Write a sequence for this structure.
């Protein structure tokens, strides 16, 4: 019977998947002294100027020679290719003095000409370098090289944290961009096999030495296996094929802890946030009454107050997360403000808020003043177990208010299409990765004109008074010369967000990782790349 | 192989037990006992709880009934549609009959799994879990009929060319009078088609669920529960995590046993 063909079809798929899985379970042989870990997908580019995704950024971090490096542990800017640097009092001129005798990995000399060419290249509109946006007015930036060791960058206006921007600009040989094959960083791109691995070799001309005078990096190379399967990653880690697991999912933390208690560690809350929001975009193809709910402050605050965040942290993250009420994590001690007044869980207060806004219960179902039942869907991305669990817990929490919620898990491209282009969604649950503790790095989220202003992207003018106030405060912190004034402006934004709940913050996931006992020199940081930020100091025990 | 009567009794017993579990006061497949996620077996939760503290026994019982009911109705719809199309093509003029079978063949050549994925993912986001269950089985029924129709067509052609049919025509029986005799004669063919469609649809729903495109939360489904097996951390947490897959295999074996004897 032909319906058997359906069963046969699924059996074939299962067999193919099993074969593929067992073949993929064999990692590439490790070269002597080579460090190995995984990346989730193929880097989109090896051109350091065009990096726009996490895995490409990791490759750039490991290969690029930069003028300054933002130390992920001390959170201070340190000199690298630049021996020294200075910023003029008005913040509009940066002067770098290069180290003497610098060389690229192909043994050619590195001079101010190469540095200026690399900076100008990222500023060119034709390059479309994402880092150019951080100069605010990149078209008006000029670069001079008065001598072979001096580079002067002139900015049209002061940019907060401009030093950190140079951490993202790879210095390449002038007129010879090589996509990471000729670098002034610790590693160079040696081999790449799509969907298999990226292999980085040690740069023999790297200038840095350790305190004992030994050349850095210690490792002979790095192999980044492309693998988007935590099961396999953990199995291969336990077999000693991988040296570390960055971003360990909470489900697997306990499993690995049982088997190898010394290999895993919980570093506490990260800077990242998990949040949900309602679609408030005027362009959204939603019924008018739904838009009215989502634009209603009382509705959003009531939803926020009905969510039991402690349960989300305990159940969805197995205790490896911290309830969140603000976009600044307690891990960010400089900017966190524990005195902000936030809407804590209180279902009775949530019901009162809804009643005051004209909502009423009809049986078990909540209705608005016009009698429309309050039903909506929460989108999240498929494959993220913690987010799907959170969405199901929230679904149950909101049932206590009479709201009927549907949870929808979509694959990431489909989700992004709805969020960024079609605006065809009601509510969304996603996370935001914060790579920089300075709130200035979140300008693209908070400014109402930004396409990443998720609840209502690319507003021509702020749709509400409180969004206008957020714009004003964020612009103030971006231009103020006084730290206290910046802090006050960011505190004000935190309070507005807590009052208005455009983002309903849920949890700060903890930083979980696993490190092989053979790997030495690991100094985990809260900032990305958490475990390998000091890759030059990593080495395997027993390796020369 | 288990005999048909034993298989029928066992299947009936499973369904009755599932009804009894769901009928117990205070039970709900969506209740979250948040103090006891991934709990072991206890008086309160005989088969423990899942990662969200929901009773596994209740959810497995609900999934069993939902899946069997949905698959049975979908199989019935498929069989009826196949009977109509198969008989119509066999007794139509040759050109029309050939055209109908050609349409069946085109349907058969389509990639099932991707069609299921496409149709399921095109549903509105606000589709409630109950509606998503109905739509899932409707889609399965809508895509399952051509193979069955092809088989029915072969049987109906044999019937059309049978000597008693020629004799009936020669005796002057009209079309509608002949039609009365077709269905009873196709019954021995349709019953096994119906029976083997049920496990096929149960598996198809489980596969869709495991791909995240099946029945929506919090409604329990085989696919949703089998999704847990993807996580080795979950597998070592409790042996009860294997209950859904064990029960699914038992149910499929029982239905196949019944179908095999009907053949």
């Amino acid at each position: 019977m032909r319906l058997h063909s359906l069963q046969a079809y699924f059996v074939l798929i299962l067999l193919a998947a099993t074969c593929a899985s067992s073949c993929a379970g064999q990692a590439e042989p490790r070269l002597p002294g080579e460090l190995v870990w995984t990346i989730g997908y193929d880097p989109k580019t090896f051109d350091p100027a065009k990096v726009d995704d996490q895995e490409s950024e990791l490759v750039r971090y490991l290969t690029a020679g930069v003028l300054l490096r933002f130390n992920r542990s001390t959170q201070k800017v340190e000199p690298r290719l630049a021996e020294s640097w200075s910023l003029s009092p008005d913040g509009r001129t940066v002067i770098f003095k290069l180290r003497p005798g610098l060389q690229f990995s192909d043994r050619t000399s590195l001079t101010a000409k190469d540095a200026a060419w690399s900076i100008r290249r990222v500023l060119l509109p034709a390059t479309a370098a994402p880092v150019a946006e951080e100069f605010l007015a990149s078209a008006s930036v000029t670069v001079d090289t008065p001598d072979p060791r001096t580079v002067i960058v002139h900015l049209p206006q002061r940019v907060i944290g401009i030093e950190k921007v140079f951490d993202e600009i790879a210095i390449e040989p002038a007129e010879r961009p090589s996509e990471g094959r000729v670098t002034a960083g610790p590693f160079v791109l040696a081999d790449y096999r799509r969907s298999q691995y990226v292999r980085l070799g040690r740069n023999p001309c790297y200038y840095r030495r350790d305190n004992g005078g030994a050349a850095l990096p210690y490792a002979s190379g790095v192999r980044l296996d492309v693998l988007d399967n935590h099961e396999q990653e953990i199995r291969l880690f336990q077999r000693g094929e991988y040296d570390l697991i960055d971003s360990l999912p909470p489900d697997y933390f306990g499993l690995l802890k049982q088997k190898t208690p010394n290999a895993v560690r919980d570093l506490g809350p990260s800077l990242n946030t998990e949040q949900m929001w309602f679609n408030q975009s005027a362009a959204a193809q939603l019924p008018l009454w739904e838009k009215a709910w989502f634009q209603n402050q009382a509705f959003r605050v009531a939803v926020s107050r009905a969510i039991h965040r402690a349960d989300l942290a305990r159940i969805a993250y197995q205790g490896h997360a911290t309830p969140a009420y603000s976009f600044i994590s307690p891990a960010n001690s400089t900017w966190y403000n524990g005195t902000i007044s936030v809407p804590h869980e209180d279902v009775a207060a949530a019901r009162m808020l809804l009643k005051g806004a004209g909502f009423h219960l009809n049986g078990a179902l909540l209705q608005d003043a016009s009698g429309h039942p309050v039903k909506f869907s929460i989108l999240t991305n498929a494959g993220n177990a913690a987010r799907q669990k959170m969405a199901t817990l929230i679904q149950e929490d909101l049932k206590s208010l009479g709201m009927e919620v549907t949870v929808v898990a979509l694959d990431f491209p489909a989700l992004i299409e709805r969020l960024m282009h079609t605006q065809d969604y009601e509510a969304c649950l996603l996370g935001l990765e914060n790579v920089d503790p300075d709130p200035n790095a979140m300008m693209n989220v908070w400014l109402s004109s930004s396409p990443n202003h998720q609840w209502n992207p690319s507003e021509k003018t702020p749709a509400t008074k409180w969004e206008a106030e957020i714009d004003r405060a964020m612009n103030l912190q971006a231009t103020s010369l006084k730290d206290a004034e910046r802090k006050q402006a960011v505190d004000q934004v935190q309070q507005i967000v807590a009052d208005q709940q455009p983002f309903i913050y849920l949890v700060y996931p903890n930083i979980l990782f696993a490190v092989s006992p053979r790997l030495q020199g690991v100094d985990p940081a809260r900032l990305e790349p958490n475990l390998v930020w000091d890759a030059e100091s990593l080495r395997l025990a027993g390796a020369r | 192989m288990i005999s048909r009567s034993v298989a029928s009794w066992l299947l009936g017993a499973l369904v009755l037990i599932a009804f009894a579990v769901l009928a117990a006061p205070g039970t709900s497949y969506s209740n979250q006992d948040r103090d006891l996620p991934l709990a072991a077996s206890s008086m309160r939760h005989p088969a423990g709880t899942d990662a969200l503290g929901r009773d596994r026994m209740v959810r497995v019982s609900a999934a069993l009934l939902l899946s069997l009911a949905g698959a049975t109705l979908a199989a019935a719809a498929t069989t009826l549609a196949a009977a109509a199309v198969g008989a119509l093509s066999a007794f139509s003029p040759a050109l029309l009959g050939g055209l109908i079978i050609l349409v069946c063949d085109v349907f058969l050549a389509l990639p099932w799994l991707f069609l299921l994925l496409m149709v399921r993912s095109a549903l509105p986001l606000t589709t409630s879990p109950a509606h998503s269950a109905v739509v899932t089985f409707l889609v399965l029924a809508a895509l399952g009929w051509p193979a069955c129709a092809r088989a029915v067509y072969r049987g109906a052609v044999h019937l059309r060319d049978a000597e008693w049919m020629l004799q009936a025509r020669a005796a002057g029986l009209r079309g509608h009078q002949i039609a009365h005799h077709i269905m009873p004669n196709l019954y021995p063919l349709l019953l096994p088609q119906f029976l083997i469609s049920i496990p096929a649809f149960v598996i198809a729903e489980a596969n869709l669920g495991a791909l995240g495109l099946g029945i929506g939360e919090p409604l329990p489904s085989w696919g949703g529960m089998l999704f847990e097996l993807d996580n080795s951390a979950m597998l070592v947490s409790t042996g009860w995590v294997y209950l859904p897959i064990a029960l699914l295999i038992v149910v499929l074996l029982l239905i196949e046993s019944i179908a095999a004897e009907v053949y």
User: Anything to note?
Assistant: Confidence is low (pLDDT under 50) at residues 1-6, 17-24 of chain A. Residues 3-24 of chain A form the longest helix (22 residues). DSSP finds 15 helices and 22 strands in chain A.
